[in-house]
Amino acid sequence: MKVRLLLFFLFIIGGQIHSFAQCAAIDFSISPAVCLNERTVVEDTGLASLRDWDFCSGDFSQTPSAQLDYTLSAALGRPGIEFAKDGNLWYAFVTGTWASTLYRVRFANGVNSAPTSVDNLGDLGGKLIGPGQVRIMKEGNEWFGLIHNAGSPGGELLKLSFGDKLSNSISVTTLASGLTNLNSGLAVGRDESDGWVCILTSSINQFTIVKLGFNLSAPLPTDILNSVTVPDQNNLGDVDLIKVCGQWYGFATNYGNGNLYRLKFGTQLFTAPTIEQLLGTDLVNGGRLRIVKEGTDFFLLSTSLTGGFYKTSFGSDLNNPAPVIINEGSFGTTLQNSYGLGVAKENSVWNISVIDQGTGKISKVNYSPFCPVVVDDPDISRPIIHYSLPGTYAVTLTKSLADISVSKSKSISVSNSIAPEVVFTTQNICAQRDVLFNAQVKVATIVSYDWSFGDTNTSTQPHPSHIYSSAGIYPVTLQVTASNGCNNIAKSDVAIYNQPVADFSFPTASPLCTNQNYVFTNQSVFDAPSSPTWEWRLNGTLVSSTQDLTQVFISTTSQEIRFKARIPGCENEVIKNVSTVIPGPLVNFTAPATACQSAPVSFTNTTTGSVTGYQWSFGDGNTSSSANATNTFTNRGQYNVTLQANNAAGCQNTTTKSIIVYTKPQPDFSVGLPPFSCAGTASQFTDTTPIPTDSNIIGWQWAFGDATKGTSTFRNPTFTYPLAGTYNVSLLTSTNFGCTNSLTKSITIAPSPIANFTNAIACANQPTQFTDASTGSIRSRLWNIQSNSFSSPSVQFSFASAGSFPVSLTVTENNNCVSQFSKTINVPVQPLLDFSIQAPCSTNPTIFTEVTSGADVAVSQLWTFGGLGNGTGATAQFVFSTPNNYSIQLRSERQSGCTYSITKNVSITQGPVADFIPSADIGAPPLAVSFANTSTNANSFLWKFGDANNSTSTQTNPNFTFTDLGMYAVKLTAFNESGCSFIISKPITILVPSVNVVLSDLSLVPDQQTGALQPMLNILNKSNVPITNPDVLVDVESSRLIKKKVIGKIQPNQSLSVLVDLQIVPHSANYICAEVDIANNTADFDKRKCLPLSSTEILFSPYPNPVKDNLNFDWISKEPLPVNVIIFTSLGSMVFEQKFTSVATGLNRLELNTSTLPNGLYYINYSDSKTTKSFSFTIAK
Predict the structure, then answer these.
(1) Domain total of the chain
(2) Is residue 262 part of a domain?
């Protein structure tokens, strides 16, 4: 245990320091030393007031212990706990911050016993949001509570209203908001002038003081004030209040830095307090606190999240400048994360309850293990007590006078010597007679007796007698002294009474006759509490000990009556005589003991003796003078029926018998509204017959008025009407005394809907659609599928496994009638869907085959190939263009109608790519071809040469000779290790070669560096065979003729462009021509192209010259001008003329058939807009 002396440092913040007012002086007397079990008187010697005795005070000087008491699992976060006693019952109210809940804990056997019940009140209808501290108070006869709703958006102060009992239900009112400190404390006090005032710690390290008044009503803005900020501010925590000698004090913790603060309000609570910081504390992460008074000393009890429990002692003065703080520790591991703290005291024993804010465990810290005191006389001003164990005990008297609570303590020492055990008894209670007293002592030798009889008389005898002069209550005390010197007392109040005076009176009837009961009335005088006993004697024979005498005379002789009244110690007697008794008839009749209301009852006269007339009185106002009578009782009840028989001597003898008339039941019933009165479903009938106060309904007979004449004997039966309509229903009820009655009512049975639903095929782990197909005006629906409920017209539900499952739909029509339809849904066993994969390579058909097994066979398949395409059928193929990982899905529809899917990630690897290069792909037979295999990702090959013999080869690079004309498709199939294959086919053509190569274009390209021009040729192969490395001739104005070889292979119908390595200086020549030079070339004019290099038209001499059949005339045009060509004979005759409106730029040719012209000399004339020129030629055939 750690003890520290607190340093006191005063901050004058709110105003003047209030001086501690002197409390009123009190005192009491007590023996300073007694023996064990010695009864001793403790007497208050001051004025009468509200007293509180503590016969074992000073508990907090003991070493405490702690143990787990009980657990409230939701009391987590910043819980608060408050004890309150309502009558003889203790309650604890506990908050749970995180769970937004309030507990009500009941202690039926006292607050220091185990709880007898725990009510989790929840969030009080959504009102509680993160509740913190809770306080309970009583105003008048009404109980109230305050809760700080720390988790609400506005930080609310809630009022709980219980009514006259804490066990009642609770109503909640919001009094104020804006109080948002999670760690906030809440204390409340009742001020004489301002009513209830509460103090809260705020998030800005100030105290918020709220005046609620005597009615605990919502405060006005003027009813709320704030203190100044506390010194060394951090995070204010809990706060508590106490009023001492008219002065209000408060104490608060600082959650963040462990500071303690003392608040002084003075005589009025609704004021800004003076705040003092108590230095030297170490209550970091402090929880709740309570300021209490034990004996004459004040203690501040507090908790800490570190688990420590702290006790700060102020002594008898709350203004103590140096209070002492004691860390009582954690009691092993009992206290952990301690926060909530509640304190109560009952029979001198403290209940200190600490809440673990992380687990909700509530532990009790014990300072007072046992107080061995017995209160023998609970007189609050002068109690008598004794102690059962030796020791020294502190006795404290606390008195409240004019709102000032003052305490005084004294000690008493109890020795080991045992006091004698003494009691006494008394005999006789009569005044002015001897009263005997008898002392009874166990296991002791008594050396002296001291009796006090309560009337100033005493005695020292062990068994004295004493005469009290008058009646009264006398406090008798016996004090004895044993041989060991120990004393003891016995005290008892003795009641003394006056002697009773006996007397009685005669009956008023005259004459007195035989066979008739007469009552003699006791008229004795006595003290009521003395409870005398009575004795009646007739002719010396004891006949009764009752207060009054009821007697029948059977003889006509005179009678002596003696009456005696007696109390212990004295008695009194009176004697009276009856001189004359006349003979009278013996009256009697028979009748039932019970009857029913409104039913006739017969009474039979059995009287004997001489009778002149009869008179019946039935107790309900009805009478009869018949010998035998009948009466109908209108109301229930017990009736005294009297028969009087008269005789000639004047006797009017009577006899009376009781008859109990029981209630006739008033049957009534109700039929439930729809859905409990609908066609096709059980209609509920409820007996509403009022229960008679004097009997019970034990029988019911129902007739339901349907065609089948249905009945029932149940009290609240059900009956099913197959059709809607109106029915007359009757109910006959009977009581346990046989009384019956019946009632008939007309009831209406409403039409019912017809429930039905449709459903899609049910498949495991797939949504199944259920659709309401009921008839009627349906208002609501209730589906029940595997313990799940739904209310919509259609429902989707997934069954997690195969099996047979009941599904029901209950529909309610607008008239509230209900119908239900159920059926069993069969969910087939889900097959283990799977598929196999063959040849998973790119650029190759990958084969997918479903391999699912199970009883539910497949009827169709749909394949999805990674979003690239789809397929159908049990086996599907797909070609992936590139290797990758692809998501392949198979959706398989089964015979049951269910469709299942499976998706696999399939790795498509690089497939083989077949390719080859033939040494020749066209040529004349026989053509020997070598095949160069350029395939990739392949390890085996199959060649097919496409000949008539279906020749093949598995060599990598085979040779083959084609001997016949034709086109051959040579196929190469390449395989890899995964079984993938790739086929490529190329044609090989065997033919007779035909060469036709033309020069399709001639252009000049300037050299960027020199400015010279380079010829650019485009060679087009119109042959049926490839042309390899053709020669070209370049003619620069016939001055330079250059031959160049063009490197390259030109396939049929393909062209090749080539830049000739020849530079032509601009303006150095008039033209340039180029020509393809290939043997056997069938092209003529097309194999040559020319371009002008100057503005001059270039004309060539016609050729051949001489000519036989065809004459060619070539020229190079600079631009497309109109041209006119004329042929003349040597004699000047024109034999030919052709006009060209436009000619091509470059080389042009005119081909003339001269076969029709005669031999001779001719002239050809060329003319355009710029040039005219003639050439001669000769035709020689």
Answers:
(1) 10
(2) yes
Contact by Cβ (8 Å): 810, 782:
yes
Q: Looking at the domain assignment, is residue 421 inside a domain?
A: no
- Beta pairing partners, 1110: 1153
Per cent of the chain over pLDDT 90 is: 72
Residue 544: how many CB atoms within 10 A of its CB? 16
Q: Do 476 and 620 share a domain, yes or no?
A: no
User: Could you tell me if 801 and 724 lie in one domain?
Assistant: no
pLDDT, mean of residues 1010-1036: 89
Spatial contact of 983 and 844, defined as CB atoms under 8 Å apart: no
User: For residue 941, what are the CA distances in angstroms to 695, 740, 1056?
Assistant: 112, 112, 35
Cα–Cα distance list, 1037 to 501, 998, 1094 (Å): 185, 21, 11
Cis ω before 958 (30° cut-off from 0): no
Domain hosting 656: range is: 589-662
* Judgement on whether residues 605 and 460 belong to the same structural domain of the protein: no
Q: Distance between CA 736 and CA 694 in Å, rounded?
A: 10
CATH of residue 952's domain is 2.60.40.10
Same domain flag for 237 and 353: yes
Quick one: pLDDT band at residue 17, thresholds 50, 70, 90?
A: very low
Distance CA 535, CA 802 (A): 94
**886 pLDDT more than 90:** yes
The domain boundary, picked from 662, 677, 700, lies at 662
Q: What is the dihedral of CA 973, 977, 980, 986, to 10 degrees?
A: -20
Distances (CA, A) of 793 to 459, 751, 773: 100, 21, 9
Tokens of 716: 């609240």
Residue-averaged pLDDT of the chain: 91
Whether residues 214 and 264 share a domain: the answer is yes
Q: What are phi and psi of 477, to 5 degrees?
A: -125, 135
| Judgement on whether residues 131 and 265 belong to the same structural domain of the protein | yes
Residue 1046 per-residue DSSP state: P
The distance in angstroms from the start CA to the end CA of the chain is 151
Domain-located, residue 521: yes
Q: Tell me, yes or no, whether 415 lies in a domain.
A: no
* Bridge partner residues of 345 (DSSP): 350
Among 494, 496, 488, CA closest to 376: 488
Q: Cis ω on the peptide bond leading into residue 1052 (within 30° of 0)?
A: no
Q: What is the pLDDT of residue 57?
A: 86
pLDDT of 719 reads 97
Mark residue 508 as left, alpha or beta (left: phi above 0; alpha: psi -120 to 50; beta: remaining): alpha
Q: Are residues 773 and 625 in the same domain?
A: no
Q: Which two tokens stand for residue 839?
A: 């040849």
Burial (CB count within 10 angstroms: exposed 0-12, middle 13-18, buried 19+), residue 442: exposed
Q: What is the mean pLDDT of residues 843-870?
A: 91
> DSSP characters for 727-747?
EEEEEEEEETTS-EEEEEEEE
Compute how many other C-beta atoms are within 10 angstroms of the C-beta atom of residue 50: 10
Q: Mind listing the pLDDT tens digit for each residue in 635-665? A: 999 999 999 999 999 999 999 999 999 999 9
CATH of the domain at 1131: 2.60.40.2550
- Domain boundary residue among 892, 908, 924? 908
Distance, CA of 1151 to CA of 1078 (rounded, Å): 23
One domain for residues 122 and 212: yes
* Model confidence band, residue 1167 (pLDDT cutoffs 50, 70, 90): very high
Q: Is 87 left (phi over 0), alpha (psi -120 to 50) or beta?
A: left
CA atoms within 13 A on the CB side of 696: 3
Longest dimension (CA), the chain: 217
